[in-house]
Amino acid sequence: MKRFKGLLPGSGRRAVHAFVVVSLCATVTGCAEEPHSYLNGRSNDPVTVIVDKDRPQQVMLGGLYEEAMNRAHVPALYQSERMNENSDRVRLISEHKADLIFGCMGELLTSLNPDEAERLSQEYVADEAAGKVDKNSGEWRERVYKAMVANLPEHATAGNPSSAIGCEDVNDPPLPQNIVPVFRAAMFDRSERLTLNQVSGSISTEDVQKLTQKAAEDANLSIVVKDFLRANDL
Predict the structure, then answer these.
(1) What mean pLDDT do residues 93-109 have?
(2) What range defines the domain where residue 101 resides?
(3) Is 83 helix (H, G, I), strand (E, B) or coil?
(4) Which of 126, 151, 159, 209 is the most exposed place for a label (fewest CB within 10 A)?
(5) Dihedral angle sign, alpha carbons of residues 139, 94, 166, 188
(6) Is the pLDDT of residue 190 over 70?
């Protein structure tokens, strides 16, 4: 695995935050019910974010969400590696090697359940041909998102899908390709899931394209994502 140059590791800060959480739990009831690594024996570990090093969009998204978590005082460790299949990313969560990965709904569903993806794709293409697909309504985005989540392995779940479309190189079978973070459920409490959803809700397709291009051009992903998050009050 390879760390992306210029990003802050955040290691060591999770333990400090753990002390704060434990202190608060001494006086606030209900903390024990929150899923979180602070409380399940991994208090020294940052959130491990893993992306496909051969896909520039993945690299940018990993840096963007990692920086957002660090700004929210959730230490995150960013790593990149070469992956052969889309399913490799989800497998890393199942094997507890990754806590957070990124993908697009259609490509992830295709890797998780090809038959279900093909069935939905046939309906989607038919609706498009009949002029029944209103991209502003979000109907198909929700259908594919729900199917993808239903096929995730145990202990994995997903944040809200972004309105941003990614994976332009993937169109087999044709399906909505909204960007979505997928994560190990036990590692994220409600406030941390909110951080992921805020980032997803703030980016557009144009933002994704511009940020990916800028990161590739100046090779300083940390500055690129920090500028974007600052401009959007994240």
Answers:
(1) 94
(2) 13-221
(3) coil
(4) 126
(5) positive
(6) yes
The mean-pLDDT minimum among 76-90, 117-131, 168-182 falls in 76-90
Q: Tell me, yes or no, whether 5 lies in a domain.
A: no
Residue 210 exposure: Cα atoms within 13 Å on the Cβ side: 10
Q: What is the pLDDT of residues 21-33, one digit of tens each?
A: 333 333 333 443 3
- Residues 124/113, Cβ–Cβ less than 8 Å: no
* β-sheet with 156-158: strand ranges across: 76-81, 47-52, 100-104, 179-184, 156-158
Other Cβ atoms within 10 Å of 203 Cβ, number: 20
Q: Angle at CA 47, nearest 5°, toward 144 and 89?
A: 40
Instruction: Evaluate whether 199 touches 234 at the Cβ level (below 8 Å).
Output: yes
Q: What is the pLDDT of residue 225?
A: 94
CA trace torsion 152, 153, 156, 162 (10° rounding): -10
Between the CA of residue 148 and those of 97, 105, 202, what are the distances in Å? Answer: 21, 7, 22
CATH of the domain at 203: 3.40.190.10
16 pLDDT exceeds 90? no
Report the alpha-carbon angle 119-120-126, nearest 5.
Answer: 100
Strand partners, 102: 181
Please give the tally of structural domains in the chain.
1
Cβ–Cβ under 8 Å, residues 196 and 161: no
